[in-house]
Amino acid sequence: MAENKSILVVGGGISGISVAVEAAEVGYKVHLVERNAYLGGRVAQLNKYFPKLCPPYCGLEINFRRIRPNPDIDVLTMSEVVKVQGGPGNFTVTVKTNPRYVNEACTSCGKCAEACPAERANGFNYGMDKTKAAYLPHTLAFPMRYVIDRSACASGCKACEEACKYGAVVLDQQPATTELKVGSIVYATGWKPYDMGNLKLLGEGKMKNVISNVMMERLASPGGPTGGKILRPSDGKEAKVVGFVQCAGSRDENHLSHCSSICCMASIKQAFYLREQYADSKAEIFYIDLRTPGRYEKFLNRAQADENIKFTKGKVAAVSEDPSTGDITVELEDVLAGTKRKATVEMLVLATGMEPEMKGSAGAASVSQDGFALADLQKPGIYSTGVAKSPVDVMTSIQDAAGTALKAMQSIVRS
Ligand SMILES: Cc1cc2nc3c(=O)[nH]c(=O)nc-3n(C[C@H](O)[C@H](O)[C@H](O)COP(=O)(O)OP(=O)(O)OC[C@H]3O[C@@H](n4cnc5c(N)ncnc54)[C@H](O)[C@@H]3O)c2cc1C
Ligand code: SF4
Ligand code: SF4
Predict the structure, then answer these.
(1) CA 178 → CA 11, 79, 106, 214, 274, distances in Å?
(2) N or C: which end of the chain has fewer CB within 10 A?
């Protein structure tokens, strides 16, 4: 067995976190490298999990409780791998950590943000609102520590440094480079939402009341830009008649050729958000095929039992906006009725798919044409898991992560 019982995990979403806790709890040292200022990945941005519709923070917090007291998990946020050398049992990895400008003394009192005169678009809420340049990534962030976006700072300003009575603000912090010796590597780099700007027929992201499914998660979330009220972006009106366009850019050779597998479930879940919020609301889901396999069939049946959630089989061919009302009209062929028709809604949600993030990560396994990781025999000791490997839900990501943790440990034992 190699002397080095350390594993590098790249990506601190639910998949990477799961690999880290599984391996660390059997005595392996884990370096968990995350690009964002917080752990949790895209799951941290969801309002509720299907099928139980519980808040995702239940699941994440259970894992954070396993990470906090474990000295074998070294969490490196705001960090990326820049170089990987060596082989199984003996990799040398160079990690670059970008400055957070706030150190461990931060109590997250918020005084820096109160004093801060500058604002930036809030990436956590997909740009639908703003934060100060000194900000907490979100209310349940792990680690619970402020960050400063220096690119948004007012010139010459030091107000946050003066406001922080704990000396936690360090405006001259510099990037740091760390060299790690590890025995195996797991890439859990996950996904990003497919860019609506590429969808010409669906408005190219230019119509205010045409939003993506990830934005809908934030709109419905109590920590979102509207405090959880589903209000349409153009005028803040309650959005009670909402359409959902399935496969928006998925299963299409011009965009993502794969099926993201969770978008049908996500839209059904979001139709429930709407129905729970407004008794007089109506949702219409425009689909090509509905994919709700296994235990998820019951979730679909529940939605089909609600007469105010309508399912229409047909591909949306065009979308237009009425400038006087902000309403959106979709044109489609209703396949089962055999007619062409139009439907007008107050807000339209595009069920954009999951685009893998792994391409370009230093040292990562090879990727398929779609960008998902391939089992790479040329790179022993390097594995991938979760959505980096295929578009899956949270439960499958966690199961896959446990198996991947085992492979990463076995690789060390064998080398
Ligand atoms: C609209 C929508 C709703 C959904 N709702 C549900 C639901 O209700 N229930 C459910 O089970 N699933 C749901 N999903 C699917 C769920 O989001 C995924 O299963 C989950 O995010 C997979 O986790 P992951 O850790 O593999 O990837 P991610 O969540 O993407 O995490 C990857 C992490 O890696 C980091 N990273 C990426 N590249 C690098 C790099 N080079 N260096 C360092 N760090 C990096 C990222 O910052 C991120 O933190 C939904 C998906 C969508 C699109
Ligand atoms: S950096 Fe200082 S002022 Fe800002 S939240 Fe942390 S402790 Fe409070
Ligand atoms: S230095 Fe930047 S973050 Fe700090 S108060 Fe000024 S503008 Fe805000």
Answers:
(1) 17, 10, 23, 34, 47
(2) N
Distance 36 CA to ligand 2 centre (A): 19
User: Please, are residues 330 and 342 in contact by the beta-carbon 8 Å criterion?
Assistant: yes
Domains and CATH numbers, the chain: 6-98+175-190+357-414 (3.50.50.60), 111-163 (no CATH), 194-353 (3.50.50.60)
Please report the pLDDT score of residue 124 as a whole number: 98
Ligand 2 centroid distance, CA of 100 (Å): 12
Say which residues have a Cβ less than 8 Å from residue 358's Cβ, sequence separation at least 6.
187, 189, 364, 365, 367, 371, 372, 373, 384, 388
- Whether ligand 2 lies within 6 angstroms of the CB of 163 is answered as yes
Looking at the CA of 8, name the nearest ligand: 1
Can you give the pLDDT at residue 253?
83
Residues of the chain with pLDDT under 70: 1-3, 376-378
For the CA of 112, the closest atom of ligand 3 is: 5
